[in-house]
Please model this.
Amino acid sequence: MVDVILGLQWGDEGKGKIVDYFAPNYDIVARFQGGPNAGHTLYVEGKKMVLHQIPSGIFHQNKINIIGGGVVLDPVTLKRECDAVAAHGIDVRKNLFISERTNIIVPTHRALDKASELSKGESKIGSTLKGIGPAYMDKTGRNALRVGDLLDKNFTSQYIKLRLKHQKLLDNFHFIEDISSWEDEFFEALEFLKTLNVINCEYFINNEITKGKKVLAEGAQGSMLDIDFGTFPFVTSSNTISAGVCTGLGVSPKKINDVMGVSKAYCTRVGSGPFPTELEDATGEELRKIGSEFGATTGRPRRCGWIDLVALKYTCMINGVNKIIMTKADVLDSFNQLEVCTAYDVNGTISEEVPYQISRAKISPVLKSFKGWNTDTSQIKTADALPTEMNTYIDFINNYVGAPVKFVSNGPGRDQIVPL
Ligand code: GDP
Ligand code: IMO
Ligand code: MG
Model:
């Protein structure tokens, strides 16, 4: 049986904290897509950790953590992260498994990412520049190197072939970057990668499921950044939605049980692209300040706005969400008035659907106001202690979206979560 935790907005919903919270209920935690563009924050014994490649269950000693085949893996980031995790007494050689199908991010992928963004000028995607798009292009273009190829005697010649191909593309972009120091680090990290557990993920995970083991699939990014259903072209390059669990891990849709969607009580986006409820005013600044809304991977300030229920209902539909986990509710503690977006005004036409043309149409949000709760909720432990105004806010979301909020997260700490 596989349960899923994934983001319902534009990423950074607090998935890392939530996966860390639920991990004790599972035997295996597995990342199924994305790469080091992810930055999942969690607190271990009060110390902040940000994970980019390793699943967020790693700090639970007796759990297996898998990097699935749908992931793109930067060996340099992985090595760095393994060192950081080992400093907490975690034995990655015991707890971390990597699928042989996982595609490798090579140094020229990062250079290509930069070159591509530069060439787009004003219309750049706002990529994290971690090489994600180029790495997935090599996967679908059937050129990629995979972790299972590492021990192949032709690996180095295959790498050189790929680098030459990339060099031609970089020349076309007139992009020059000396990657020799990246390459040294890359090859050093590959030697480290060879010492880790590389598995056939699909057999491993299905055998474990047959034995009755419980798997938690951890999404990266958010559903509105999905390559097919997000705000294309301002998206990432993988399927971030629940369907990605099947292709990323090799499990059948019939094995998927709960799909737990994580949404902030408001909304953020980092990078370019449409964001109908964005607040480019003092209120947006307030949300950014109180919510410490700065990217965990790039440090960029996150764009902030009110919760967008049109988008949330859409992503619940696409994912089959049966439980919503509402994070960062405490960030709204001091607001007198809250707004939620209940429809889009698309060039004068009111709609409750996310339009295909979302990246091109002029969209104004139709907002409904709610009274704020004006209470410090960060120490609340039980549902009955939540303020009435928060319950009203949540009830409205439940009814609109058609999926229930089952947990409210009221702080970044492991214990700051209230089951409803
Ligand atoms: P992820 O990418 O979805 O894992 O989210 P990030 O780690 O990028 O960003 C979420 C940020 O919010 C992190 O700094 C978390 O520590 C923090 N956070 C998570 N849940 C809560 C919450 O309920 N309240 C507050 N105030 N912060 C939270
Ligand atoms: P987590 O897992 C927020 C955004 C980038 C950019 C777009 C494409 O921490 O929620 P890419 O690097 O994939 O080429 O960038 O997607 N993006 C994220 N935004 N959280 C993330 O991950 C993101 N990963 C990518 O800012 O707009
Ligand atoms: Mg993040």
